[in-house]
Design a protein that fits this description.
Length: 65
């Protein structure tokens, strides 16, 4: 499971810049143009993770046989 939908991944130098960003001006999240689109993207991401969990459980159960 990842949180990359909401939070981006940052490199070393960007991380160092964020340490010095006292006013929080570098805080940018993955956003959507509308609330409906954001909700749809979040639901899609949630169901993708549920599907991954089910697939992993099925693989584990198959190994146990």
């Amino acid at each position: 499971m990842t949180n990359l939908f909401l939070f981006g991944s940052f490199g070393f130098f960007e991380g160092m810049g964020r340490v010095l960003d006292i006013g929080g001006t570098m805080v940018v999240y993955n956003d959507s143009p509308t609330v409906v689109e954001a909700d749809n993207r979040a639901l899609n991401s949630d169901w993708r993770v549920v599907g991954d969990d089910i697939r992993n459980a099925m693989k584990y159960a198959e190994k146990e046989k």
